[in-house]
Write a structure and sequence with these properties.
With 182 residues, this protein is an alpha/beta fold. Helices cover 48% and strands 13% of the residues. α1 packs across α7. It comes from Acuticoccus sediminis.
Length: 182
């Protein structure tokens, strides 16, 4: 049975770097839906860009998160996700003043512990796929810090420490094997 673990939190808080370090140690990982959607949209018509059509983007992120969740069985005992369904549903609720989170979060479950990366100004950078500012990233983090507990998850906020230390914290919290570093 595959255990699905979410790494979420602030944009530019070190999630992707942490996932890369976990992958380098032999763990299966799933890239953030939002980044994949933005790359697809930039390569085509741009219709699902979050700054152009946030509702379509959120619906696409929800569908992708559900597909990701369903397709990882057999990839290993632990699979780490760069964001999950709660992130996408929380964003949809934010842009529509809706209540997608309550229905979707109970249908697709991850490990009960979710790891959040807090705002880290020194790491935050804009790029072609991340056009929002640090203030928006802080607001996003605040929404997620409320959304995950509201959806029944225990949140562990990762300290602003080295990637190696963050990997150790995550694996110790999950009582997971600490494979040797590459």
């Amino acid at each position: 049975m595959t255990c699905r673990v979410v790494i979420s939190g602030c944009s530019g808080g070190g999630k992707s770097t942490l996932l890369e370090a976990l992958a380098a140690r032999g763990y299966a990982t799933v890239e953030e839906p939002g980044r994949r959607i933005v790359r697809e949209a930039l390569a085509s018509d741009g219709g699902t860009l979050p700054w152009r059509d946030p509702v379509a983007f959120a619906h696409r992120a929800i569908a992708m998160a559900q597909d990701d969740h369903a397709r990882v069985d057999g990839l290993g005992p632990l699979v780490f996700f760069d964001r999950g369904l709660v992130d996408a549903a929380s964003f949809l609720d934010h842009v529509t003043d809706g209540d997608a989170l309550s229905g979707l979060a109970s249908a697709t479950r991850y490990h009960t512990t979710v790891f959040l990366t807090p705002p880290w100004p020194e790491l935050f950078q804009n790029d072609a796929e991340r056009r929002h500012g640090f203030g928006e990233a802080i607001s996003e983090y605040a929404r997620l810090a409320q959304a995950y507990p509201a959806a029944g998850y225990t949140v562990v906020t990762l300290p602003r420490v080295s990637v190696k230390e963050r990997v150790g914290i995550v694996l110790a919290e999950l009582d997971a094997p600490q494979f040797a570093e590459p």
